[in-house]
Predict the 3D structure of the following.
Amino acid sequence: MANVLRKTAVIGLGGTGMKSVLNMKKKLIDTYGEIPSMIKFLVIDTTDKDHLETKEGEIELDPGEFLKIEVRSPGNLMTNAEVKEWIPNKVPKFALTSGAKQVRPLGRLAVFANAAPLEAKIDGLISSVRDYRVERSGDTSDNIVVNIICSISGGTGAGSIIDVACLARKNLESTDKLIGYLLLPDIFVGKPATDNVEPNAFGTIKEINYFFTDDGTHRYKFGGRERKIEGGLFNAVYLINNMNRNGTVYNNINDLYEFLGMGLFLQSSSAGKKATDIIDNLEAQLLGKNWFGKPTVFSSFGISELVYPGDWFADLYAKGIALSVVQKTFLGGDISRVNEFTDDFIQRVGIKEHDADDVINSILAAGDFRKFPLPPDFNKERVNQTIGKRKAHLNGIQKNVSEAAKENLAKFKKDKLKELNEELINRLSTPQGLELSKNFLYALVGRLTEFKKEMNEERNEYVKLKEEISQKFNFAKSEAERASKKIFGAKVAIGNALKKYKELVDNEATFILERERRERAIEFFAFIIDKANKWIEKLDAFSNYCSVLTQELNQDIQQKQQEKKETKPFVLELKPDNLKEEIPNMESNDFLIWLRNDKQMDMLELAEMRVGKVKEILLEYGYSQKEVQEVKNKKLDDILKELPQSERMKYIGLLDKMASPLWQYNQGFVSVDKKTENIYLFGVENPNKSVFVPEEIRTAIASPYDPAVIGTGDPKRVICFKVEAAVPAFVVSNMPRYREKYINPNKPFCYHIHKDWEKGLPSLFPSAEEDEVRIYWSLGLAEPFNLICKTGQHYYFKSEKKGKKLDDFKVKLKQGRAEAMKAFLDNSEYVDEAGDNIDKIIKDLGNNKVAEALRNYGDEIEKKATRFGKEIRNQIELELNDIEGYINSILE
């Protein structure tokens, strides 16, 4: 490992922290074959540790890398003097043994309950990183970086991050860095039991924001000692959401864990030394900067990869060649179309499931049962009579469908077995049909096993549904009985209640029928599978291991092809035009020559080996082929060098576009002197030999900073890591929505980890200072926005949130331009909505069209201004200055 590495401590908090750390470990192992010794991990959670499943095996936390913090008697701990200083009122008192249940104060309580082991773990972690001495992992940087990663939506991570950061910070020197990686709540919104994720996030961000301000100081007792949190707790904070700036949505939480793991890897591993530039530049963007009186604290990042898929093609070729040897040399005959034959047979004889219901429809038709009868009238006497018929009605349906299913199944088995036998006879009657017939049966068993599994899962679901609906009858019965006791409107109420009861009975009957259909389908598939397996045994037991290899290699190839389909949205492939998925052709005798000359082995020896060892030799042969070696050994730089410089820069532009930071923000606030900057890091195999050099990259990206180009040792990919910095919290998209949930007067508990912080912390949102937010008034009046208009003597603001549809959503401001502007600026909700709408219109029209419309508006209003008095002319002058500055900002 010859790359320069950074001494790094990574602390994962809660479930998100754990999964992100595991993904980072996977990336390190994939790149270096091991975890570099100067990179250390600690995961802290209130649940048991987890692992990451990969195709290469499980990625796990080592025993010393995990600390479970529990609170078995929270009520007793809340009486502790240290805890009473901060614990809010109305905090649930359930034990913390399997999560903090989205209650941030409970997450912090777990920290206090485990103060000694927690502090010892953090101290030991940072000490082990700082004291690391160069061994065989290459050089390291002098200072260290501590990364803290968590979701700010739940209880454990969001509840512990401030204290954990404080404990980490006390171990750091001035040149060390503490970086936060925070996952925003949007990926969880709308899922069950997630009501508190947004207000939790708002509370956490409010606290972190406070410690970036000049007065952000806090002292408290922890572990018997006074602790101090001062401004600048973090050097930088990354916010990661489930939608990037391009509008691409990440719906799978595992994709976000992988993304976070990659970000940690890039700034902590071989990228880490050069990543100093990123962190320094990022701090330069944060230091002393304010928008509307609020610090620009938060940043985000995006990642993209340019990949040469040589390993993928080499794996595909090697497996395909191995399969070809089994087919041509061991078994003989052409079975390349066996899957086509099998699918054709399944469809032709009508036994297909998944996207068809051939079998269950042949056994019983859906909905084919007698519906539960309602009485001719809805008198009170009918209630108990009708309810009493349910059991007998359902028993009758059960008996009828069972008898019909058995009868239909017997005939169906007989017919389909006959068709299977006829198919086998036809196949066995063709030249070299033995192997084709056997492989056809294997493929058939595989598909029918999947069908049977599907039927079993569906059967279990209907059993569950039937059990669940059975629990509803008592309520329905009670409802009907209550209806019968009514003095007025009893008949209508009884009718409605019995109709609901009938609907439940018919639903239960449907579940009985559907369960029966699937049970008989399971029986049918088991029957055909059994017959097919007996045919396989009869055909040739001796060649059974070859069939197993065929099945395994087919599955391996399908898995490789599936990997291709699952390419991440931030991955761009670059491959030569002549690189195709067709497997290189090998003659059937080539393997035997190689086996004899290279392996000094004959077929008898091979035949005596276990199937796994045979597979190893087959793959060894596949990888030894010249075509495979050429594909596998080719480097991405080799391909890039063959391209003209303009074409290479095109790929830099594509990487830049794909590395869209995973967040969104209100661009209406980004204008004139308030702007974000991009900071770039590019990872290549060897920066001293790469075709990508900083001077050329600089021409293809927009940044005031030179891009860092670092070595990753990976010859198959170029990575673009793009940081966008920095904005204040209130500019981040959905922050107003988080605030709305946060200020809910009926909230179940405090969303802060200190009882005084709910009212004691400064607002994330700016006050409406005229000079700072007048831009929204000025733009709102102008074309093409038209958010503010004058009708008669009054000005109106078009608000879909506050206005009425019949009034064209117009809400009255004031009479007179100056008074109307003051009324608008004094209402922060109007200002926020105007900013959102301006942002949307800019996205729809584009910067150039908006700028043109604003210029035309400015020319027109400047001509009209001569008709007004001095006071109004002065105000219009300010508005025109706002508009001119805005035009310049969007055209930069």
Summary: The CA atoms of residues 257 and 380 lie 60 Å apart.
